[in-house]
Structure formats: structure tokens, C-alpha cells
Model the fold of this input.
Amino acid sequence: MKFTLLCPDLVDTPLGGIPTVTRQALRQIERIADERQIPVEFDIWALHDKPSSVEDVARAAGLRRSPARFRGFGGSRLAMLLAAARERDGHEFVFTTHIGVGPVARLLRARRGKLVQFIHGVECWRHLSLPQRTGLEATDGILSNSRFTLNRFFEFNPEWRGIPGTVCWLGLNHDLDSNLDGASAPSDSVPSVLIVGRMLGAERYKGHEELISVWTDVRRFFPTARLDIVGSGDARSEIEARAERLGHIRSGAIRFLGRVSYRELRDCYRRTDLFAMPSRGEGFGLVYLEAMAEEKPCIASTDDAACEVVLGGETGLLVRYGDRPGLARAVVELLGDVDKRRRFGQRGRQRLLEHFTEEHFGYRLWNALSPFAPDLRALE
Done:
């Protein structure tokens, strides 16, 4: 079977949720197809990647075999559309990992073929743009990383309720699961909290500023408590300046660590006491899984899909976005109760192993795609 996959990024962006999910999807489709002895060849199109050899793509994605073809367009939507126009109606099964490439997928989809698109969060929690609607007009199925994302998508775009929608929870990236069989490393000597997430002016919803705003209150109870912030983006300098105005940078109470490697990121999770990302815009939240893998309790929000991953009172605490007193109480509660942190962390790891490994994601994805691709017979 020819499996045509369209994505924004794959090779040139090692971090980030959507390229991570794209690599997982490729690995898992290949794995299950091999197990079931179903021949599958990948034809991969990436909007923002530069052209690369299929061997390099296989290494970057963690595939056992090279794809049949890889096309990178260096960020040129026009070039991608023109290439699709030359192959118009030539692809029997097309799968996108972002609705932004839906118009290209529509051109590629054969008249009797099928198109399935994966939606993730904020990019579809609004009335869609004309190009996105153009792609959806030819879409046969929608996969969503959470029930929250799917419901929100249909709330803003009710005209597409006729397209079958399936929830397909994500799984922990294999690049970060090397500690699943080992004990968690000891925490830092000072009470510490970690947040991991991009800081973009257009997407200031992760909760960085919420945590910074309550850090003075947290330090009244734990004078040496430290907040570590991993990530970058065009809003970092403004957010960092806010922490500086509160005196937290000079005192070492808040550290901005920037972008880090996978190895450094694992170390950050292992050293911290708890993970907090009180967001209002998470379509799923892979970072919660990363923390759960290291047996770290999580603080998340009631206002997005985080509550499908983090169970309040069981694997962490949930607070309403904007409830800064509640957020401060949650941080203080967990920093002050090592037994609760340990219990939540252990239960979080157990929940991860039961529901959120990359293999779990692969099985869910395979079964969600199988109604549209008869060669991918559903798993029992």
C-alpha cells in the first residue's frame, strides 16, 4: 500500500509537538505493518524542510527502512501546491498531520481515494481560513489528539460535523522514554518546579506568566524554591523581563534555560520536584507525559485537554487558568508533601505505561485509519 503523508516539519525540526507526532506516526505505522506483514511504502511531503535524502529521513524519523520518496519544500507553499498539481488525483490514501497542508492533500487525493487529517489544538479552535476549509471539503475523516480538541473544533466549525471524527490520544516520544525501565533520578537539593513550553507572542497561553506571578507567594513558604523554565520563542525576552522586575532572576529564584537537547531535557525532568504547566490552550500536552515518565506529579489546567492526561487528585492537581491563588496553593501543597508527590508520581507513571506509550498511540492511530485504508486491517 502507498501511504502518502503530508506534514509541516519532519527532518529539520527535532523538537516540537507536531513533528514529534509525525515521526511517531511513521514509526508506528511501519512497525505494525511489519508485524502484520502488510507492505507499506511511504511518500512523505514536508512543507518547511529542505530537500533530504530518503536515508537521512529514515534516520531522522527512526524508520527501519527508507521511505519510497521524500519531498521537502523549504517553506514554499506555492512550490508544494505546484508539485501536487502535477500529480493531481494520483494518491489513493493521503494523511496529513496538520490541516495547514490540507489544500495540498486535496490536490493529491485520487477521485476515489481517501484523505484523513489530524488536528491538534489552537490551530483549529477558531473559524478556519479559506485554505483550511478548502482542504476539509475533500476530507473523509478527522483524527484528534483529545476529546477536548475535537469538541472545540466542531464548536467553532459546525459545518464540518458531518466528517467522522475520532479521538486518538498521543504517546510518549521514544526519544524520551529511555528511563521507563529505571528508577527516577534524585531531585535537586532545593525545592524546584519545572515548566517546558514555547514562549510565542501569538500563543501566550502555556502558563509561564502565571507561574512567575505567584512565585513570590511560593517563596514565602519555601524561601529557596526555584522555577526552571525550558523553551524559547519571540516572547521570551518580555517574559524574562517580567521575572527580572520581580527580582527573581538576580536571586536565582527563576532560571530561563532556553532550548535544550533531549538528554538535557530528561535531566531537567529528573532533577525537579514537580512539573507545572497551567495552560489554557493545550490540545493534549506531550510534556505531561514526559514528566510522568520520570514519576513527577503535574499541575495542569481545567481549561483545556490536560485533564484527559493528568487526573486531578490522582496523578497531579488541576487548577483553573487565571486562578493565581489556587495555583500558588497547588505548588505549595505539592512542594510541602513529599509523600503526595511520590504517590502522584508513581500513579502518573503507571497511567503512562497503561495508556500513553508510543505503542499505544500506534495502535490507536492504526485502528483510526483502518476504516479509510482497507489494507490497514483493524487490530483486535
Residues 71 and 277 are 36 Å apart (CA to CA). The chain has 13 helices and 13 strands. The radius of gyration is 21 Å. The longest helix spans residues 17-35.
